[in-house]
Amino acid sequence: MSAPDDGHANPAAPDGNAALGAVLRQHAEQQYAEELHELARADDRQRPPNWRLSPWAVRLYLLGGTLPSGFAVSPKYIGNPRLIEIAVATLATDRALLLYGLPGTAKSWTSEHLAAAISGDSTLLIQGTAGTEESAIRYGWNYARLLTEGPSPAALVVSPMLRAMEAGKIARIEELTRIAAEVQDTLITILSEKTLPVPELNSEVQARKGFNVIATANNRDKGVNELSSALTRRFNTVILPTPATIEEEVEIVDRRVAALGRALELPAERPALEELRRVVTIFRELRHGVTADGKAKLKSPSGTLSTAEAISVVTGGLASAAYYGDGVLRADDIAAGLTGAIVKDPVQDRVVWLEYLQTVVRERDGWKDLYRSCQEVL
To answer: Are residues 353 and 204 in the same domain?
Structure first.
């Protein structure tokens, strides 16, 4: 299976895609190249300028389904289909898209797959941090050439945003609210005028059709820099919620753990749904502060206990089962990961976790093994 030719060679594979199998984590357009290729073949609907797929096909790629040929497209996002429709429709206009919500609600995952389906390239990424500078969004300079030649196009260091504008593709900004407010506002001209001035060269870069921006932000991050009203107006915001039902969340964890297990080549059996359901149940009960049957109120720990953390717990448990057990995921394999995910504050969260173990886990039928294993690692 090879990725479609989009003019971007894989830097880790000098001979094209021959070494993709050795890459720890493939980009979405590489990992799902066959699906994207089949969708493009079957897609006879109108496509916005410079889009690889029509909005109909992008929706099908994200939500999964079956093509008329019988080819099955796996779901990348499990949740409310309307949210994906709004996101795709937004990107077909001149409005940028902000995916907002709690940590671990698949904002980055959705952003990557939207860019892969629309542009065939999810790599035009700016990672937001407290140290992100304006040059990461606009452009920088090769100072050696700048000193010898002065300002020139050859001395310009092109940012992912600038490349996206020139190519008419999707640029992604992760953790927008981690970026300082004065750097965030660099986006205002880009989003409103679709132009990036380069005053040093007395020129500007005008975005080609197809260009747009997907940003992500979460509302639980410490040190968040609120977006200015001027910048907020230039985004359409889609809030990605936590999974609505336990069945939905179990399916998400099951699919992602299976994919990670294949990528990491873990010599372990795929975990039983009962074990996944136990992990997800614990996370959901502590997250919501009430047992699944609604009969008992619970204290919630300081962490978010997101679906992404549940995936991490189960994947870590699979690695433990594979290399130190018989390859079958059991309570002993997930106990340490569960405790680490829940106990972020060694005082407050430990009390919450101990109380939950005593009042819920110990009393629940079939959970005695998990109770004993968790007690051993506390």
So the answer is: no
pTM recorded for the entire structure: 0.89
- Characterize the bridge pairing of strands 96-101 and 235-239: parallel
Residue 11 pLDDT: 44
* Greatest alpha-carbon span in the chain: 75
Q: Is the dihedral of CA 278, 281, 287, 290 positive or negative?
A: negative
Domain stops at, among 205, 239, 273: 239
Distance of alpha carbon 300 from alpha carbon 182, whole angstroms: 36
Mark 172-209 as b/e (b = at least 16 C-beta within 10 Å). bbbbbbbbeeebbbbbeebbeebebeeeeeeeebebee
- Residues 195 and 279 occupy one common structural domain: no
Write out pLDDT tens, residues 142-181. 999 989 888 999 999 999 999 999 999 999 999 999 999 9
Residue 161: both structure tokens together: 């945003």
Asked if residue 322 is part of any domain, the answer here is yes
Backbone dihedral angles phi then psi of residue 203, each to the nearest 5 degrees: -145, -175
Over the stretch 187-246, which tens digit does the pLDDT of each residue have?
A: 999 999 999 999 999 999 999 999 999 999 987 765 578 889 999 999 999 999 999 999
Task: Give yes or no: residues 92 and 232 share one domain.
Answer: yes
The reply to whether 5 falls in a domain is no
Q: Is residue 14 part of a domain?
A: no
Instruction: Give the pairing of strands 235-239 and 170-174.
Output: unpaired
For helices 246-264 and 273-288, give the axis angle rounded to 10 degrees. Answer: 120
Residue with tokens 């407010």: 181
- Who's near 107: CB < 8 A, 6+ residues apart? 99, 100, 101, 216, 217, 218, 240
Question: Could you tell me the residue range of the domain that residue 251 belongs to?
Answer: 246-377
Would you state the pLDDT for residue 13?
A: 42
Residue whose tokens read 């997250």: 287
